[in-house]
User: Fold this.
Amino acid sequence: MELLQLILDGLSLGAAYALVALGFVLVLNATGAVNFAAGDLVMAGGFVAVALAQILPVPGLLLLPLVLLLMAALGLLFSLLAYFPLLGRPPTAVFISTIACGVMLQNSANAIFGAEPRKAPALLGEALYRLDGLTIGRQSLAIILVAAFLVAAQYLLFARTQLGRSLRATAQDRDIAEALGVPTRRMIALTFMLAAALAGAAGLLLANRYFVVPTEGGDLVVSAYIAVVIGGWGSLPGAVLGALLIALFQVVVSAYASYTVAAALLYGVLLGVLFLRPKGLFGEAIGRRA
Amino acid sequence: MRTWLAAGIRLPLAALAAALAAYPIFFGNAYSFRVLTLAGIYALLVIGYQFIFGHAGALSLAQGCFFGIGAYVSAILAASFGWSFALTFPLALAAPALLAAVVALPVLRLESHYLALASLGIAQVALLAATNWQSLTGGANGIAGIPGIAAFGHSLAEGAPLMLAIWALVAVAGLLAWQITRGLYGRMFHLMRENATAAAALGIDASAMRFRAFLLSALYAGAAGALYAHTLGVISPGVFEFPVMVACLAMAVIGGSARVSGAILGAVLLVHLPEWFRVFEKSYLIVYGAALLAVIIVAPWGVVGALERGRKRFLPEPQPRAPAQHVTALRAPVPAGADAVLELSSLGIAFGGVVALEGVSFVVRPGELLGLIGPNGSGKTTLVNVVSGFERPNAGRIRFAGRDITQLPPHLRARLGIARSFQSIALVASMSALDNVALGRASLEGTGLVSALAPARTDAHLVRARAHGMALLDALGAAAFAEQPCGALPHGIARRVEIARALALEPRLLILDEPAAGLAEEEAALLAERLRALAAAGLTLLVIEHNMPFLMPLAERMVCLEDGRVIAEGKPEEVRLHPRVLEAYLGRGSSAGVPA
Assistant:
């Protein structure tokens, strides 16, 4: 029963991680660059929720559309600062520019909100249900449902709409997409907005139960990265699956040992995966181009 | 004086040293000494970081973590166990180097993003350990009462003596870094970070070099960390937090990523930045972030790079003078008794479902010039990649000079004597033609970290390699361009420089991938003449070409590929008129012959 409880907690954490990992992969596929600030965008989303809740004292679920919208705007600004000035430069340059933007986000949050942990409102309240010794938080359930809804929405957007086809074409081969008349720059900007919105949603989801602090971005981007490595570099379903797996791992090992042990073990697993299966457990979606 | 000013790192370094010496004399007080001491420690950290980030071109985010480990190891041993600095300091260097070695093994052979995030992962684990391993690290409070620097009965007083000692160490460490990278070894780093494939094709083991650079970075970071702990007297888990890494990265980028002077300038500038921007108080890191972003967008070569560019406009950089003596040599093509240099048997390779090569078997005989032809997409370049080791075949074997090389990585095949050129020219644009060719000698010279440390006014390997390079450029009729940077060379000359570089390897087999592509007719004729001379000197060549008028008179035998299979083999004229070849090139029912 205890294990079942942990699995439920792990799923709820993993659902939020999945959104972060998904945003990370979307940008990776569209630009070929790693967005180091992916974790800081989650943090920003958490603080946006905290700030909104001070103005509008409503349940988190009603804040969600606002958070998505504001974070999409931040994503656009982010791409204008960190990506578009560096078109045609090596991926490392973009990597460094995203680090710089992450540092600015982190320290702006620190200057505005302070270093103390802050709490965002729960999605639909914090009631607990008890069932055969199992404690199910309404927030945990809501997190899983909201994340599942967002992942499904992203999937439908990409699989079923013309816009999604253009986004996929841009990610697959920018030159050919460009030649076919896809406005690739606009698609890339849109990808950044989408990624930031997903990260922001994750921020809102996490900032209730786990609070939000300005420095949490590093841990989150490493988690997203490990999820993406395990799920296969560049694979969208792999990222979601990888995020669920590592969250379950973290929650279960933390419960039986400690968070430090869980983090160290997870890192050991990452090195092992990189050593034995450099293309991830489920294969790499974007091959290296010779 | 002119050349002295225009060359190398001396100008900014000398100016900075003068400013540094003047500053404390005029404005010196306890506080400014402390800030400068801190700047020296950061300079040490950044000089180390340049090995992996600037020279090897890999974005590591573990430098801050190595710094923290150096600090904690020295602090714990000194404060909790009372060990002397003479013992704790070497251990503070060894510990991060050991960690670097363990982590590097799975990560360094992968692409850059793996290193970046995997190295950040170590930092996060180290931070957790420092915070939670209370009994050893003092937890969140850290360690206090760390003694000052004292060894062998002498101790360094705070203030000016400590500052001077640290800057003396920075000077030594900077000289050492400069010595390591000034010659052929430094140029090898330049090549491998710009084009890892070309480096491997010259027998340069890029992942071994990256490994060494990572260890050197860790050693320097450990030293800086230990000095930091003993200078401040207290440390907390904060040394593992991201701001230290960000500061280090920003210093390297803003100063200039591959110059010792850049590290020093970056460290001095950024350590003083919070002093100058006191209005921002604790948020000075916003300024760091903004400065980092601005520099990476506007001047990715950093302040020292910008200074050097400015200087170049007024004082042209003295190019390496081409040495007088000429040396050339060819290796014996095969051990006595062997009848094939290269022997391919039933090679097959498929990418996804697409079969690129299937059942390819042929031999290249000692001293012959074999032409390889085939329509676009027939698998010619794939074959070159398989032979030189950049693609692994799914089936079949490759024997070279009597040895099975099917499983060898590319750099080891190059060292056995397989040299190749690339379809699109793969030279380092900012480096002179002569130095590009000299890089071809790296594996034969056995250039490495140890040889780079040999004390001499100039790097002997580079001098010898340039002498060889000059002879080869001469032999290919490109000697007049020796001192020009490759980015500015005409296409035909660049082609010849690339062939000269391949020849510098003293190959037993030279593979040329479309050498005449993009050449004007006269240029192609000149190239053909040079190739004929090389063949006459006993070199074995495998030439891939579309240009039939170029290849036909040159080749002794030809092999034709279609859809990854050998469809004809024999004398050039026989292959040209072979019905299958006609069909492949011109379609079914043709009888006119492939235009010659």
Notes: Chain A has one domain: 2-214. Residues 2-214 of chain A form one domain.
